[in-house]
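Escalation from tier 1.

The customer reports that the assembly of two entities below gives different structure tokens on two consecutive runs. Tier 1 could not reproduce it. I'm attaching the input and our single run for tier 2 to review.
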Amino acid sequence: MSTASTASCGGRVLITGFFGVFFGMGVFFTGMLVQEVWQATKTRFWTKLECRVLETDLRTDGEDSGPYSLQVRYSYNAGGRTYESTQLALKEEDGWTDDYQKVQRMMLAYPVDGLGTCWVSPENPSDSVLVHGSAWMILFLPLPLIFVLVGGVGIYAAWFGKSGGTEEEEEEEPLSDQSKGRLGGLAFCAFFAFIGLAALVGFFGPPVVGLLLSLTWEPTTCVIDRSTLLTTRSDDGYTYQIDILYRYDVDGDEYRSNNYNFLSFSSSGKSSKHRVLHRYPIGSEHTCYVNPGDPTEAVLHRGLSLGYLLALIPLVFLAAGVAGMVAMLRKNGAKHRGSRESRGQRQRQPLVLKSRGSPLSRLFVLLVFAAFWNIVVGIFVSQVVRDFSAGRGSWFMVLFMIPFVLVGLALIGGVLYSLLALFNPRPQVRLTPGCVALGETADLQWRLRGRASRLTTFRVTLEGREEATYRVGTSSRTDRHVFHQQVLAETEDPHQMARGKLPLAIPAHVMHTFTAPNNKIVWMLKVHGEIDKWPDVKEEFELEVIAP
Amino acid sequence: MSLEFRFREEAAVFRPGELLRGELHWDLPEEPRHIVIALLWYTTGKGTRDTETIREEKILQPPRGGERAFEFELPLEPLSFSGQLITLSWALEAVVYPGKESTRMDLVLGYGDREIDLSANAPD
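Tier 1 run:
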């Protein structure tokens, strides 16, 4: 065995260990979730029996899992014996809810002396329930499955993937077979989009549908019976939820609801919720909206709230997945553009070239990255400061943090630089025809929007370059090599900087624009303007050069 | 076992849009399920390999030995080239299924008498 292959084997073991952690964690949490869902739903497989309701009462003293619960006593016959039970759900917390309407509906469904349905354990007939546990956790199953998928694919790629192979190993497989493997990327993007769509529909579908349906509900006078803030403990601290219980009459019958709006969930932050509670003191009268088809259903506030903006999170997943799918399908669609028919459809009209990375997008990317970096570093720095205040500071931690803080400061400097560059004159470049063939000449026109007189020098350069992307370990790198460079215009005259026109000749014996996933031939028009004591104007415009 | 391409005229460079005519001859130890003749391009060099099959012809349930004439219209691009980082080559490939025994013949697609050489006029 050669040294190279031994090193490669060691690398594979390391990668397997890295992805093994992902895979193991994914399998562990998937198992936990499946077991939890099974515990919550196993009563659905118990024996279904008729039961008689002996007593019902509505309790309002629950804590974390909700303030409302139906207390019920019922009897049923199993195996020739009569049993009595007060067990509503298998897990006690499943019997408590923060939704009053749910309990109210159950009270109507289980009137005293009425008959209902209960589920009895076949192994132990004294064990019975009236309601099943909730299986909503199953919605989170894709999350650990992503870890399983990433880990599994990583381990598979380490041992059987092409990236670790040499060119000779690649040669073993027919080339026409290698060009058929792009479905994986499409499937990954589709999975991403599906997660986004499922989260969007699952979390925001019911509230949005409820909101729209409530527009036809009857305005009714209601009186506030309870106005309080529910507190839920979690590992990360406390979260709070508005609980306003109100009563209203429909056709002489009294109903209650605690549905404030359609998007009420427990979250951190108390002050805004207290402001809402102050508007609804106990005993005050308000207008609520009641579903004429089901008077147990009502809502106090049917307007939009900031909570609906959370829908943007799954929307980002959905948009990213769909964008990825579109990009991949486009790439596939570009396969046959070398035909004569498609050539005729190419852009022959004048074209205003698009800048590759406008100053605004550069600023945005840098701002997001700088904010993320400095927030994370800031958390650690504040911890170091707290430790020193408490007299247990570590100088090792200070030294360790210095490089991270310096990078953070450099990023802030970069943001300021990009911000100043926003006020630079912006070049606009127009090419006629919009794409040029090798050996042909096009008309190039430019115009500077803004004060061109601020520039001391101005230069337009044509550049053709190779861009090759390859993988090193688990990261990818791109090498660039310029094969053609030509200064088209260079001036210090402000009038010529502001507006200009010249013939753009593309050499005949070079390569046209070529775009493949890992290898590219790119043609650029680079505009560079120098400004004294200010960020320079630097923009690149990609142009399409076609074969003759 | 033999699997080879034959052409009536020997040409070093093929022009974009030209018709590429040839024959595939094979003599195999067993009857294959099918044979695929593909016209494709592929890259070599620094970057991870890209490859794309442009035209394909499938010979279903062929005999153990035989020949098949084929004809492909060559596309207008990408042209064959060689640079410092990337080389793009065209090829005709025949693959026998199952087993994936294959043969490949490299071609040059271009207007000159050889592939485009990007290092010829590269700046320092």
